[in-house]
Amino acid sequence: MKKLFNITLLLLATVFILSCRNGDDDIPEDIHEHDEIGKVVLTLTNKADAADIQTVNVIGGVADAHLHLHQGDTYTAVLDFQIKHDDHYHSSDEIVEEKDHHFITFAPANADIVVLRAANDIVRTDGNKIGLKTEWTINSTQSTGKMNIKLIHAPTSVNQNYPSATNQLGQTQGGESDVDITVDTH
Amino acid sequence: MKLIYSVLLILCGFAITNAQKTYTVAGTVQDFHDKTMLENAVVKIGDFIANTNKKGEFSFKNIPAGNYQLIAKHALCDDYTENVGVNRDLHLAITLEHHTGDIETVTIHGSHKTKGSVIMRTLDKTEIERNSTENLGNLLSKISGVTALKTGNNISKPVIHGLYGSRIAIVNNGVKMAEQEWGVEHAPNVDVNDFEHIDVVKGASALKYGSDAVGGAVVLEPAVLPKRDTIMGNIKLSGISNGRGGEISANAAKTWTNQWFVKTGGSYKKLGDLYIPHHTLQNTGAEINSFNFSFGNHGFMQGFDVSYSGINQEFGIFKGAHLGNNVDFRNVFKFGQPYYLDNFSYDIVNPKQEVEHHIAKLSAYKRFENFGKLSFQYSFQLNRRKEFDIRRGELNELPSMDLRLITHSASLTHLLERGNWSLESGLSAGFQDNYPNPATKARRLIPDYYKYDAGAFSVFKYKFSSTLNAEAGARYDFSRYDAYKYYDAKDWNEKFASRYPQFFVQEVDSRILTRPILDYHNFSANLGFNYKPDNNFEFKLNFARADRTPNPAELFSDGLHHSAAIIEEGDLSIQKETVYNANLSMIGKFNVLKGLHVEVNPYYMISDSFINQVPTGIESSNRGVFPVWSYQQIKARIFGIDADAELNILDNLKWNTSFSALKGDDLTHDEPLILMMPANLRNAVEFKLNIPKNFYVRLENESVFRQKRFPIRNQNLDFIEDGTTFNEELDLSTPPSAYTLFNASVGADLFKNLNLNFRINNIFNTEYREYLNRLRYFMPESGRNFIVTLKYNF
Q: CA torsion angle for A155, A158, A160, A163 (degrees, to 10)?
């Protein structure tokens, strides 16, 4: 009986002794946000005026500027998706590396903007262009004009020629939105 | 020569003298446990027989001197055998173990009546065997008042009277499972093939299992082994059409008369993609394997056992349920059907869960003549949970969550039984180590922590008369979390910096490391009555108060919960949850046809500190706009009723019916509680025959009503389509329509030890959705399923 008691106490004591924390050795390392696209950089260059370069940075869904787009002009648009590391950002190579799992769609509102996927844009195996490099022709825009940009990861189907081959806003089914931002255009 | 003669004469003299001497042998026979005197016990000394009187007394006059074998017998007891030398008057106090008979009867007949005031329902061996391919959550849903909270069809958690997760204790062969049960999509790691019966305790009265079980407990018990020399076991083979899979399981036990035993078992189950009416859903397969081994000696006075059980589960999560933001949700509704259909496969790819759980247990007990029974248990649990999402690039190979949880638990229990009362007390201690592996390169959902627990309880049961029993219990628990957690500087400063400056450790790159140390003191108590005026009626009334320590998600959550597309926020200042419970059970037997058995169980729960998730705002990110749900303490009330009836229409034809309904409210925000089980009505008719042996046919109907009481958790969406901006309300709140399902099963023994069971679930391939399935937005429930099981007993 006494032996049983002693063994029990010894066991309990062992459990607690083994489990005591020993200070600094236990501090866990922090983890950076690898999966989230912390910053989206949209750069527009006016094809008619190389000096007209506009950059919009979107962090936390909020753009730091709006685009000034001239009616009748065509701009080349380049998208750069960046991951946060400590206090700075670096471009993600993975969208290009995994081109067959990514697709970008555009959706203007209160503005007549025609989008074409650029000749030097990345082409997926199914023939659709990702949309990292596009050309925007501004037919008209208003003070309430906006452009929504989505990066879809692993959609079940994509169609770059939506609504048509001459306006390639793009359409997808399935998958998940990794980026869904809206930028003002006026 | 003369000397030898003399010695011989003397010896003869002694012999003759002794041979003529007779003695009185008298004594008492009483029950070992509660010391009650046993009337009509038969005491046999050699060829002499006597019976004990009302006071348990016996006496033999004129027993000739000599050595005899004494045997004492009493109905429902083990025989007591002893060699006695009668060379003087003897007084013997014999004790017999009264309860062996009870236990064996209970197992054979499969019903498990509790003498206490705890409201309990049991799933017996037959029901478990007829549904052995089901997971625990789906199996327990057959009990009224119990339902399952599901994420798809493979992941299913039991819900008792509206409460689930950390509020339910799952006790596996005496060990309370520690398996990240706080997670809504964390299924219990249990193989139902290992158990002979499952008790569901409804309500907070099971103090023995700790104070956290405010909703109830699921107690899983393996078979009680016989005390004779034998090998027994079974092998089961099942084919499952939905998922085109199957299961194989085997169990074997070797027992000896000297009460040693060795037991082992294992099972393997594999399912491919799930079938819904007219389609299959991609990546909804499962693979489960389990193994258990135990040995020991279960003697009457003392015993011990050592056991190990391990289970490994891999579940595919339907890809169509994996969405980025709420606009994706809207697109799912607009599309009108699941995305990833058909192309059946057995492969399980991302998103998926891989969970491993191991339990090692050592228990020992010793009975003392007057001191009662002392039991000791030590258990070790290791839970390893990996959740894989669809990630970008090389990250896709890594799990986005990798939690390693180690739990040590030790307890010492003392049981003292006497004629009219019993007192059970215990001390327990536990230590838990949670380690989220940073190799995932994904932010931790819950942090690194150590948790210390210590508790003491005592339950006193008193028998006022043969018709009235009462019980009162009290428990105290201490819990401490010692965690290391990172916060974004902005969040820490806004929410906790001023209240908990002592937790601050250091700041690096706008991330703050904190070390929260949180203590909880929990008091729980229960009071119960059991009144049985005659054999036809029984009433149980139970009041309980239980304090629950907040779980790690409630305290430390911090981030986007992908499958729900909401941001969850914990709160360090959450206090323990205090719940008050009242449960009444009325059981009656009536002389209608061949016998009617009715059980009605109304219940009531109220809490001023109920921990609940409530939407508190929105947060914008590059992924979209997400609602933020914070954990808060509210005033909540749940009351309801479970009613069950069994009518034996003929000797071999019976009808079972059961109904449950409940009403849950958040009284702080004046709205219904979310995910409250809709009312349901079940009916079954079963016909039995003796030839073939154990032949039965059963027809079942389950009708589930639409839940009309639910909180509005819709989301406002801003999106652009066809050149215009829209603002739309996304209805995520309205529960699905009512539905009715039919199931059938038939079974019989083909040969002496071979049983065949055939079951069809959802005979008419009805398409339906369940409110308590979190993936109901993306997929309907399973279609028709044929299950064939062959069982061989040896």
A: -110
Which residue among B176, B196, B216 closes a domain? B216
DSSP B364-398: EEEEETTTEEEEEEEEEEEEEEEEE---SGGGGGS
Interface of A with B in 30-89 (CB under 8 A): 30-40, 58-62, 86-87
* Domain CATH number, residue B736: 2.40.170.20
Cβ B152 vs Cβ B321: under 8 Å: yes
Which residues from chain A sit within 8 angstroms of residue B392, using beta carbons? Answer: 35, 92, 94-95, 98, 101, 153, 178
Residues on chain A touching B482 (C-beta within 8 angstroms): 21
Position B164, amino acid? Y
Are residue B192 and residue B248 in the same domain, yes or no? no
Q: What is the pLDDT of residue B84?
A: 85
- Per residue in B277-323, pLDDT (tens digit) is 999 999 999 999 999 999 999 988 999 999 999 999 999 999 888 88
DSSP B719: E
**How many other C-beta atoms are found inside a 10 Å radius of the C-beta of residue B62?**
10
| Residue of B319, B429, B448 with shortest CB distance to A28 | B448
Predicted local distance difference test score (pLDDT) of residue B358: 98
Considering only CB atoms, A109 lies closest to which of B378, B410, B720, namely: B720
Residues in CB range of B557: below 8 A, 6 or more apart:
B445, B446, B568, B569, B570, B631
B115 and B92 inside one domain = no
- To the nearest whole Å, the CA of B694 is away from the closest chain A CA by 48
Computed over every residue of chain B, the mean pLDDT equals 90
Per CB-CB distance under 8 Å, the chain B contacts of A19 are: 408, 431, 433, 450, 452
Domain span including residue B245: 217-793
- Do B106 and B134 share a domain, yes or no? yes
- Nearest chain A Cα to B391, which residue? A35
State residue B102's pLDDT score: 36
Q: What backbone phi and psi angles, to 5 degrees, belong to B107?
A: -65, -40
Same domain, B79 and B142: no
Q: What residues does each domain of chain A span?
A: 36-184
For chains A and B, CB pairs below 8 A equal 151
Residue A146 has its nearest CB partner, among B431, B443, B725, at: B725
Inform me whether the C-beta atom of residue A22 falls under 8 Å from chain B C-beta atoms. no
State which of B167, B201, B216 marks the end of a domain.
B216
Please tell me which residue of chain B has the smallest CA distance to A181: B622
| Res A167: pLDDT | 95
Phi-psi category of residue B63: left, alpha or beta, with phi > 0 → left and psi -120 to 50 → alpha: beta
Q: Do A156 and B376 touch (CB under 8 A)?
A: no
- Assess whether B560 and B418 both reside in one domain: yes
Give A-chain residues touching B331 at CB under 8 angstroms. Answer: 173
Q: What is the mean pLDDT of each run of 10 residues along chain B (794 residues)?
A: 60 52 87 79 87 88 87 79 85 72 31 63 89 92 93 93 94 95 93 91 82 91 86 95 96 93 96 94 95 94 95 93 86 82 93 96 93 95 95 89 96 92 94 95 93 95 92 95 94 94 92 96 94 93 94 92 84 96 95 94 96 92 92 96 96 96 97 96 95 93 97 90 90 95 96 94 96 92 96 93
Ranges of chain A with pLDDT below 70: 1-25
CA distance B183 to B561: 11
CB < 8 Å to B623, chain A = 36-37, 61, 177-180
User: Do both B677 and B554 map to the same domain?
Assistant: yes
Cis ω before B399 (30° cut-off from 0): no
Look up the CATH number of the domain holding residue B140. Answer: 2.170.130.10
**Is the domain of B521 the same as that of B380?**
yes
Collect all residues of chain B within an 8 Å Cβ-Cβ radius of residue A2. Answer: none
Count of structural domains, chain B? 3
Q: Which residue of B has its CA nearest to A157?
A: B339
Same domain, B189 and B108: yes
